[in-house]
Amino acid sequence: MIRTPYLLFLGDAPTRLDVKTATGVLHWRPEQCLGQWRTEPSAVDLRLPDLDPEAAASRGASSLLLGVANEGGVLDASWIPFLIQALEAGLDLVSGLHQPLAGVPELLDTARARGRALIDVRRPAARIPIATGEPALVDFASRSPRMRRFLRLVNRVVDTDSSLLLTGETGVGKERLAQAIHNEGARASGPFVSVNCGAIPESLLESELFGHQPGAFTGAERLKRGRFELAERGTIFLDEIGEMPLHLQVNLLSVLQRRRVQRVGGEELIGIDVRVMAATNRDLEALVRKGRFREDLYYRLNVVTLEVPPLRERSEDIPDMVGMFIGHLRTSLGRQEVDGITPAALEALCA
Question: Which residue, among 291, 277, 261, has the nearest Cα to 183 in the 3D structure?
C-alpha cells in the first residue's frame, strides 16, 4: 500500500474526520500536486475525479484537513509549496487527524507564514476585485472561511422574495450587499430604492415612505409618491431601521402585512409589489426588550438575518484588499510610484 498523506477538502471547518462530508479526498505526493495533479489510488472506500485546491474552492470547500493514508505516512516540508497553493485558493488549513502526526502544527504554521509572505500586493488581487460601478456579490469574494460560509447563505436567498435583515457594525457594507443581492436576484430589472430612516427628520419620514396627497399638510402642494411606490417590482432598503419612531413602526408593520400603502392625507389603499430589506447596526432584540422597537415588526423583518462579518474577523482578506487598493492607486489614479507595501506595514494591518 502506498504510504502518502491524504487531504480532505471540507465545506465547513471540521471537528472530526468524516469522509462523508468531504468535497474531495485526494492521496497525493508533493511532486504530483505541483505537477500533473494526478491522484494516487485511494486508501479509503471513496473515488473522486482529479481535483486541485482552486477547483475544490470553486466547488464550495472552505478548509483542508490533513491526515495520513496509513501507518507510516509522511507529511514533511516538501508539502509546503502545495499548502501555500491551497492557502492562495482561499482554503483554511486544519490538522484533524485520528492520531497525531509529528510536526503537522509546525508545518501548517510555516506554510501560513510563507503563504502570507508570498502574496503579491503590488497588483490587484484576482479573487477580490476593486468594488466599482454597480455592486455585485463578487465584490465580497473572500479567503476567509467564515465569510465564504456567509456568502453561501447569501447566495441561497438571492432569488427569493423573503425579507432580509442585514446586521453588522457601521462600515461593513450592508447597503452595498443589499444592492448586490438586488442586482443579482429576480427583481434586478426593477428599482432599488434606499431610505435612511435615521437621516430623514421624523416629521418628513412618513411622507417619504408612503407619499402624500396635495394639501395633506402645510407645503404639500402636489401629489408625492412614496418610496414604497417608487420601488414597485423592485427592492426597498430601509437603512438604520432601529432609528424609526414607534408610531411609524405601526404604519410600516401594516404595509408589510397588507402589502398596501396609504398616502398621508389620502383614503385609497395602493397595492405594492416590493422586496423589503432592512439594516441596522443596533441590537434590535435589546430594543424590543426595552419597548423601543415593536416585537411584531421585528419578526416581520427578520425572516432571514444576514450578519456581515467585520474585517477584523476575517483578516485573511487584508493582504488581498491591500493589493486591490494599491492596484487601484496605480491604474485608476495614475500613482505608478506606489508599487507595494513593506512587510512590517502588512504585518501591522493583519495583526
Answer: 277
Q: Which domains does the chain have, with CATH numbers?
A: 5-118 (no CATH), 145-311 (3.40.50.300)
Which pTM was predicted? 0.63
- CB-side exposure of 126: number of CA atoms within 13 Å? 6
The pLDDT tens digits of the residues spanning 295-306 come to 999 999 999 999
Return the exposure string of 274-288: e unless at least 16 CB atoms fall within 10 Å of the residue's CB, then b. bbbbbbbbeebeebb
Which contacts of 335-342 are long-range, i.e. CB under 8 A and separated by 24 or more positions? 339/122, 340/121, 340/122, 341/121
d(CA 183, CA 71): 52
Indicate if the pLDDT at residue 216 is higher than 80.
yes
Question: What DSSP string describes 252-298?
Answer: HHHHHHHSEEE-BT---EEE---EEEEEESS-HHHHHHTTSS-HHHH
Query: Which of 255, 267, 265, 198 lies closest to 228, judged by CA?
Result: 255
CB atoms within 10 A of CB 170: 8
Positive or negative torsion for Cα 138, 144, 149, 153: negative
